[in-house]
């Protein structure tokens, strides 16, 4: 079992990246940073660029992983995507997605993807 939140987050991101690749996504960036902003995964599929927030939990004590994404996190994701698009202007179509993972030990017992989330 991951020892702390950082290890849990990395395990979740590894699982999410593998899951996305199996679904035909190309992982372009992991933990992409711009100043104080960070995007867990940036991937492409077809002509669409995906900004992906990965949330990982080891229990449902505090709710499902995806329930922890609030307006502030989405605002940071939007700011980060604007910075990325500025640096990579060839991408015209973007989408925001969430991959929620429930871990038991190092193994994902549930992977839930929410595509095109935006609010």
Q: What do you see in this structure?
A:
- The chain has 119 residues and is an alpha+beta fold.
- The protein has a single domain, classed as Trna Endonuclease, Chain: A, domain 1.
- The chain is 29% helix and 40% strand.
- The protein has 2 helices and 5 strands.
- A 5-stranded mixed β-sheet has the order 1-2-3-4-5, sandwiched between helices.
Spell out the key features of this protein.
single chain, alpha+beta, Trna Endonuclease, Chain: A, domain 1
Instruction: Tell me how many strands there are.
Output: 5
Q: What is the mean pLDDT?
A: 91
Radius of gyration, taken over Cα atoms and rounded to an integer in Å: 14 Å
H/E element order? HEEEHEE
Task: Please give the count of helices.
Answer: 2
Distance between the termini: 33 Å
The number of domains is 1
Structural class call reads alpha+beta
Architecture, CATH level 2?
Answer: 3-Layer(aba) Sandwich
Can you list the strand order of the major beta sheet? 1-2-3-4-5
Coarse morphology: globular
CATH classification class:
Alpha Beta
> What is the name of the CATH topology?
Trna Endonuclease, Chain: A, domain 1
Residue fraction in strands: 35-45%
What is the share of helical residues? 25-40%
Identify low-pLDDT runs.
none
The biggest beta sheet reads: 5 strands, mixed
Write the layout of secondary structure elements.
Blueprint: H1 5-22, E1 26-34, E2 37-45, E3 48-57, H2 71-87, E4 93-104, E5 107-114
Short description:
The protein is α+β, with helices and mostly antiparallel strands.
């Amino acid at each position: 079992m991951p020892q702390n939140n950082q290890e849990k987050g990395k395990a979740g991101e590894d699982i999410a990246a593998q899951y996305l690749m199996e679904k035909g996504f190309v992982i372009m960036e992991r933990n992409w940073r711009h100043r104080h902003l960070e995007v867990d995964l940036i991937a492409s599929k077809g002509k669409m660029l995906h900004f992906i927030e990965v949330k990982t939990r080891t229990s449902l004590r505090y709710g499902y992983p995806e329930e922890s994404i609030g307006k502030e996190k989405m605002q940071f994701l939007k700011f980060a995507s604007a910075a990325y698009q500025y640096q990579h202007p060839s991408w015209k179509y973007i989408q925001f997605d969430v991959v929620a993972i429930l871990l038991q030990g190092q193994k994902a017992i549930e992977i839930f993807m929410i595509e095109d989330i935006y609010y």
